[in-house]
Amino acid sequence: MKRLVLLVLVMSVLSGCVVYPNSHPHDNRNGGFCPPGQAKKGNC
């Protein structure tokens, strides 16, 4: 019974883990991050 409770607890903790891809939607031409306000000004 303890194993079942431990298994459910571990599965509930691990279900909150998320892996995000390495790319950003705001990458500029040089491959770095460009904030939206700076992109509008043409500084990237």
Automatic annotation (TrEMBL):
Keywords: Signal. Residues 1-21 form the signal peptide. Residues 23-44 are annotated as: Disordered. This is Lipoprotein. It comes from Pollutimonas nitritireducens.
